[in-house]
Amino acid sequence: MKWTQLPLGPLQTNAYVLQNDANEAIIVDPGGDGTAFIEWIKSQSLKPLAILLTHAHFDHIGAVDDVRDEFACPVYIHHQEKDWLSDANKNGSARFMGEQAISIRPADYIIDKEQTLTIGPFSFSVFETPGHSPGSVSYYVEDEVIVFSGDALFAQSIGRTDLPGGNHKQLLDSIHQKLLELPEETIVACGHGPTTTVASEMDGNPFLTGF
């Protein structure tokens, strides 16, 4: 398998595309630029099987309906944010985007607990990692040693917690108890900016080490 990082939308949110040798694909957080993103998917001859959302903030969901409609693939979201997709106040787009506020259709599948999620040949361990938002989840692919962390953990930083539903202590607990418990070589595919590793963040993230 291989994966690709594609910054999309107004905040250049990282979408990720995980694909196998049969060109089947899973899409994580298609945040915007729907037309261009769809053209890229077609140029790679990919067959999307699902859209996984780490959380429902506007900059992570902007191209969801475009991609879902084009490829007839279902959308997954945590139950605590299932009603955020259609609510511009909850997903933040009313505040940050004004007249371009985002409202999309409900998700097709609701994640209600930590679990192993199997979609076709792909398998993910779903970790609840709230703090940045109450329904934030991370998707860990053990065979590829990569975790798609959304806005929980960044390279040398952590997610903001000043938005509705954010909780700083909860976020730190999520990072320490879930993400930093993964093998140190695990790639952390962040929602913004470059990827990092669990080892790098354990050793040098000033928000986690205290210096």
In short:
This protein has helices at residues 34-43, 58-61, 64-71, 93-97, 168-179, 198-204, 206-209; strands at residues 2-8, 13-19, 24-28, 47-52, 75-78, 109-111, 115-119, 122-128, 137-141, 146-150, 153-154, 157-158, 187-190, 196-197. It is of the alpha/beta class and 211 residues long.
List keywords for this structure.
Metallo-beta-lactamase, Chain A; 6-stranded mixed β-sheet; 211 residues; 14 strands; globular
Fourth-tier CATH superfamily name: Ribonuclease Z/Hydroxyacylglutathione hydrolase-like
Helix/sheet category: alpha/beta
The helical percent reads: 10-25%
CATH architecture assignment name = 4-Layer Sandwich
List the total number of helices.
Answer: 7
The largest sheet, given as strand count, sense and whether it forms a barrel, is: 6 strands, mixed
Keywords: Hydrolase, Metal-binding, Zinc
Organism: Halalkalibacter kiskunsagensis
Protein name: MBL fold metallo-hydrolase
Pfam families: Lactamase_B
Folded structure, characterized:
The protein is an alpha/beta fold. It has one domain: Ribonuclease Z/Hydroxyacylglutathione hydrolase-like (Metallo-beta-lactamase, Chain A), CATH 3.60.15. The protein is 24% helix and 30% strand. Strands 1-2-3-4-5-6 form a six-stranded mixed β-sheet, with helices on one face. Strands 7-8-9-10-13-14 form a six-stranded mixed β-sheet. It is globular. The model has no long low-confidence stretch (mean pLDDT 96).
Topology overview:
Blueprint: E1 2-8, E2 13-19, E3 24-28, H1 34-43, E4 47-52, H2 58-61, H3 64-71, E5 75-78, H4 93-97, E6 109-111, E7 115-119, E8 122-128, E9 137-141, E10 146-150, E11 153-154, E12 157-158, H5 168-179, E13 187-190, E14 196-197, H6 198-204, H7 206-209
Parallel strand pairs: 3-4, 4-5, 5-6, 10-13
Antiparallel strand pairs: 1-2, 2-3, 7-8, 8-9, 9-10, 11-12, 13-14
Helix pairs in contact: 1-3
